[in-house]
Amino acid sequence: MGARTLRSVPVHLLDPPVRDVRFDRDEEKLEELAQDLRRRGLIEPLKIVAVGERFEVVDGHRRFLAARRACLPFVEAFVYPTKDAALDGIKYAANAYREDMSPAEEARFFYALYEGECEHDLARVAAMVGKKLSYIENRIALLEGDDDVFLAVRDRTITLGVAAELNKLPDASWRRYYLGHAIRGGATVSIVSGWVMDWKTTHAGPAAPASSVPVIAPIVPGPVYDPLRCVVCGKSDRRFIPEQLSVHTHCKQANLLPMIAAFRGVSEAEL
Questions:
Q1: CB-based burial, 41-79: b 16+ in 10 Å, e otherwise
Q2: CB neighbours of 266 closer than 8 A, spacing ≥ 6?
Q3: What are phi and psi of 160, to 5 degrees?
Q4: Which of 37, 219, 220, 223 could join 70 via S-S bond, C-beta 3.0 to 4.6 A?
Q5: Is 249 helix (H, G, I), strand (E, B) or coil?
Q6: pLDDT higher at 249 or 19
Q7: What is the pLDDT, as a whole number, of residue 212?
Q8: Does residue 141 have a pLDDT over 60?
């Protein structure tokens, strides 16, 4: 990691990290930390690297912001002669475990490592931050998906798993339609997976024929499947996504279908 020295550094010579992985910070907590620094000073030194005659904060960005807010003239810091890959690993760990990075913030940070120090090697990224390769791949995949889905993960209104399912939809308008419902209803991965399968059932093209033998008999199309159609009222309304219900086949035949048919005033065959 290189030799380091502990120094008292003027705050006005410090610059924030070139690659800040945080999208935002809790202003109230930042002010509380600033007040604490005014009373007790900085207990844990920052980790910084010399850049010309100035210094870049490598680890301790939040403490740096609080020190600047508290108008401290100097702070204690470990000064490193170079910013090597090990320091990036330290910065990731500090953010991940002290400030609870979102998967979107991790995605942005991992991709920056992938493009920079790790030279397009995801395995090196995984080794640097101490995570499994699949963990890195799942988060970087966010950057290859829908921008609105990425922002929803960043804002913590959907989970990473829900985002992965939504990004399986090739149609942007439907993807964002389902995204809106997922945000409003707090949909789980299994629910969104069901929406995606329903969409593919409805919109996927016909399967290729098994052989080149021409089909003589005419193909009679069946009823068009509508994933938004409610089995109770029989209507389709894009404002609402039907809920999935678990019911035994014999219960459906003996109880549910007769009740629905009576409710709608039709025969069971017409359902």
A1: ebeebbbbbeeeeebbbbbbbbbbbbbbbbebeebebbb
A2: none
A3: -65, -40
A4: 37
A5: helix
A6: 249
A7: 55
A8: yes
- Joined together, the tokens standing for residue 87 give 């320091």
Q: Does domain 1-99 have CATH number 3.40.50.1240?
A: no
Q: What is the pLDDT of residue 221?
A: 53
Q: What is the pTM of this model?
A: 0.52
Q: What is the CA radius of gyration of the chain?
A: 28
Edge-to-edge strands, sheet with 74-80: 5-10, 74-80, 46-51, 54-59, 14-15
Residue 157: CB atoms within 10 A of its CB come to: 14
- 185 or 254: which carries more pLDDT confidence? 185
Task: Give 27-45 pLDDT, tens digit per residue.
Answer: 888 888 888 888 878 877 8
Cα–Cα distance for residue pair 28/163, rounded to 1 Å: 30
Q: Is the pLDDT of residue 1 over 50?
A: no
Distance of alpha carbon 194 from the chain centroid: 20
- Domain ranges within the chain, ordered by starting residue: 1-99, 102-144, 157-203, 226-271
Residue 124: helix, strand or coil by DSSP? helix
> Span 106-120, mean pLDDT?
78
